[in-house]
Automatic annotation (TrEMBL):
Belongs to the CTU2/NCS2 family. One of its GO terms (biological process) is protein urmylation. GO terms for cellular component: cytosol. The keyword Cytoplasm applies. This is Cytoplasmic tRNA 2-thiolation protein 2. Keywords: Cytoplasm, tRNA processing. It holds the Pfam family CTU2. It is found in: Cytoplasm. GO terms for molecular function: nucleotidyltransferase activity; sulfurtransferase activity; tRNA binding.
Amino acid sequence: MAPSKSVTLGDPCSRCRPPNILPSTALARSEPFCTKCFARFLSTKLRKQIPDYKVAYTRDKKVIPTRHHAVVPVFYRGETSTQSSVVREWIWQDNTETAAAVVLVDLLAELIREQRQKHAKNQGFVLHILVVRPTTTTTTEETCRITEFFKQHYTQETASIEELGLDTFAGDVLDALPSRASRADALGLISRRAIAQYLNKLAADHAADNWQVAELAAEPVEGVAQRVLASVAKGRMNLVYRDLVNVSTDDSAIIWPLKEIRTQEVTTYLDLFFSTDSDLQLGSSEIPAQGPAKSLSIDALLRSYFAEIESAFPSVATTVVRTVEKLADPSTCSPHILEKLSSSSSAASPFASVPQYGSCAVCGCAREAKVSEWIKKITVNEGVQEDEVTTIELPEAIQESSSIDSLCYGCIVMLKDSSISTLPDWTAPRASLSSVLSEYEL
């Protein structure tokens, strides 16, 4: 087999049609692209994920008014003088999600312009931008730059551009958690709950119009793979199907339009179309140093991992995402499959308690029916030295509430050794925490 030919910038674009073949300005997947063809390449990848966002017609060729409303959350730390716990623990430090959101908004805006031009000013969906920040803007000095950027460039294509501060949802919870990993985990849950509430309110306010509201998550394939592996590592495997396969949370949907686009392609798009835009200042895209690996959160470790292997092994993230897409809904498994899983599983396996019932009182994900029994089965209580035994404890003020089985294993680990007295405001339903764990030694 002949060796593959290397490509460099300046080579003829592989997508241009003769005789108008332009020199390449971008390289992606060993293929040279001119600027226009590269934008079309990414746009095609995006449109495959949103097939319903088209202008629809009746049989007599009358336009059907769209009910699709897409909300793009944009995580942005920005410049702020406030040093709240949310600012200190902000887990989107490297601006990767901000950059991906800018690219997503730009591609969606271009799609809307194209639809309006081809369909007599009609469009197949309505675009909303939600800038998610650590704190709520209160002074003119802290006016969010990214919000102003969107208002300056995309007012004509969007129905709303709003800001959402996570400090109002977090309260003092982060300060009460003992480790960086638990605080990062909690902040991720807080952001999910805040966005879900925003989407549900948007749908409720327009219930008479039967709006179909969806979140368009601005994460490239590496970000989706990171979310998958993080959910598994944190003990929230049920979130993988709910958020990434079933694409539904509460009354709204989650769509991943960039899941076939790589982080490097996002960076290339920004360089081609926004390199001279002084209004767009995202800062460094490098992952900041955060100390030794043992002090990093699961999200930070996975973020660093995918950043390191992206150039050498770009198919790793794609393989993770494609594997996850093949998962079946655990709630629809036939009884004989569940029985087979239960009988064939070891005592320590979570499948030993299938089927699964209930929702976690903190994160809302599905949980095993008897978490306490599973913890007992995987716990070693004998044959070890006393100083080798570690006990998971929750604060005494909340030890007398309900049962350990109201929490999933991931939230049990997140809340261990914390000093909170009640469940924080962002949980649903709101209740007191369980009487958990001092008797369970892991």
